[in-house]
Design brief:
536 residues; alpha+beta; six-stranded mixed sheet; five-stranded parallel sheet; 22 strands
């Protein structure tokens, strides 16, 4: 089970393994654990510290713990109805069942689930810090080698198949490679450094690496997810706001228009108005329960001496991009494989259209998807690696990374990394750009992002710690271009994709959009039967 490591020089090391998992969140740890259970050598490389990094670690989240029967059937029916025709009942059934098995596996392994009023283990909720710390310990106990603070910069390939990944240790500047028979991308989504809680490590790295290998993306237009948070914090956890009432600056209630609360708040914020919340719903017992169950939500209030149950506070909407949006890498079978041999996708790195369609998967769907997709992809990656035998270790490999790593022209421009990030954020974070969309504004964003991409392609590169920043900036730029190409192609309003020039849902567009290409971005549509058709 031990991996082999060879020191090539003072600056670079190479590790040999069967399965490499990129990302140390829930999907990544489930993938690593699942692969290790197949008896193969597994390495997990995390951009941060596995167990504390990512969007789940600082959060509490629900999960689908639904036995077969009426409750499960009802949840599937509700999800299909909300998905606007883009979810799949078979996948919902599979994910819910695998999530239930995974949660039982957690409990049987000693995870401290809380007890309900009857003294029974309550398995429909996961406390992020406990959960991720527990998964880290499980992975290590299973023989997984964890490389903390080892962000990957590119995939390695050999004869058309993925053969590992290469990266850097930002603190030392030392380079590393893991040569593996298969790779699972569990690198999360992209929130464009919006500072939403736990999301700033999610910069679309896996999207770019996979696209460079030839993988397509799906559902990227469903990326305009914004989380409600107090204006002075990054905490976008929604449960606390179920106890809140909302007001305008003059003290009048937030107008009821028949629209979702987030839409009504967004309209006020775009108009330059402040919106306030006051947690005046529920009773003192429920408020105490809320404080105990969601402590990190209240720490920012305590720091400024504000009692949110008695004093109102301004709120804002923070972009969560594809982290709690939908879009991601296209998967082609039940094992979460991509179109490229040896490459698998799990968690937020993969599209979640199969289970949520055009609406956010934040909460139980995404948490359950991480368990299920991680389990399936890790198991399949182990089987694929085992099928290669010893030849996986002797393959000649080459790196696939280009933008941000190997610029087409020189010299590099000073300050370009910051320029690129600012340029991308201007076309992705503002509510009046991305929450509500129009053809004219989409065209402008595409034009501006194409110009940013030209600089990325030709000049962007970094050394040492900046090598990671340059690659992140390139990934964010590429992700933004895929988002706007998909948004341009979907000429309707559907789910979180809200167009002001096409305000209704068009049944003829009940299809998925597949986006691909690096320099030249293209979009095609896949009908429900997965027949590809041209998009005007």
């Amino acid at each position: 089970m031990n991996t082999k490591i060879f020191q090539m020089s003072a600056e670079k090391s190479v590790i040999l393994a069967d399965v490499l998992v990129l990302g140390g969140g829930p999907a990544g740890t489930w993938a690593a654990l699942s692969a290790a259970e197949q008896g193969v050598r597994v390495v997990l490389a995390d951009k941060g510290y596995c167990g504390t990094s990512g969007a789940t670690a600082p959060s509490n989240t629900g999960a689908w713990y639904l036995p077969k029967g009426e409750k499960r059937d009802g949840e599937i029916e509700r999800r299909l109805l909300r998905s606007t025709g883009l979810a799949d009942s078979r996948w919902l059934q599979r994910v819910i069942e695998q999530a239930r098995r995974g949660l039982d596996n957690l409990g049987d392994s000693g995870y401290p689930f809380p007890l309900d009023d009857l003294g029974n283990s309550y398995r429909a909720n996961l406390r992020g810090p406990d959960y991720m710390g527990f998964m880290r310990r499980r992975a290590i106990a299973a023989g997984v080698r964890i490389l903390d603070h080892h962000p990957a910069l590119e995939l390695l390939a050999s004869n058309g198949a993925i053969a590992g990944a290469a990266g850097i240790h930002p603190r030392s500047g030392n380079l590393w490679e893991v040569r593996a028979g298969a790779v699972v991308l569990a690198t999360g989504g992209c929130a464009f450094l919006s500072h939403a809680l736990g999301c700033d490590g999610n910069t679309g790295d896996g999207y770019l690496m996979a696209a460079e290998a030839g993988v397509r993306l799906s559902g990227m237009e469903f990326s305009s997810q914004y989380g409600l948070s107090p204006a002075h914090t990054s905490v976008t956890k929604g449960l606390t706001f179920s106890f809140a009432s909302f007001y305008l600056e003059d003290g009048s209630p937030l107008p009821e228009t028949g629209e979702d609360r987030s839409v009504r708040i967004a309209r006020q914020l775009i108009d330059g108005q402040k919106v306030y919340a006051l947690m005046n719903r529920g009773n003192s017992v429920e408020h105490n329960w809320l404080r105990q169950g969601q402590p990190n939500c209240f720490l920012p209030f305590d720091r400024i001496g504000l009692d949110p149950f008695k004093e109102r506070f301004p709120v804002t909407l923070r972009s969560e991009g594809t982290v709690r949006g939908v879009g991601g890498l296209e998967i082609i079978n039940d094992d979460c494989a991509t179109t490229v041999p040896g490459l698998y996708a799990a968690g937020d790195a993969a599209s979640r259209e199969n289970i949520v369609g055009a609406v956010s998967g934040g909460g139980s769907p995404n948490a359950s998807w991480a368990i299920a997709s991680g389990t399936w992809s890790g198991r399949a990656a182990a089987r694929f690696a085992a099928s290669l035998g010893d030849k996986a270790e002797t393959r000649l490999v080459h790196g696939l990374g280009e933008a941000g790593l190997r610029p087409g022209k020189q010299p590099k421009r000073e300050g370009l990394i910051s320029e690129v990030i600012s340029g991308v954020q201007a076309e992705t974070l503002p509510l009046d750009v991305n929450f509500f969309r129009s053809g004219v504004r989409i065209a402008l964003s595409r034009q501006r992002l194409d110009a940013v991409w030209a600089d990325v392609r030709d000049y962007l590169v970094g050394e040492g710690r900046n090598a990671l920043r340059a690659r992140e900036a390139a990934a964010m730029t590429a992700t933004a271009r895929w988002i706007w190409a998909s948004a341009d192609a979907r000429k309707e309003t559907r789910g979180m994709h809200r167009r002001t020039d096409f305000t209704t849902t068009d049944d003829t567009q009940t299809r998925r959009l597949l986006t691909f290409g690096i320099d030249d971005v293209a979009v095609i549509a896949a009908e429900k039967q997965w027949q590809e058709v041209e998009v005007a």
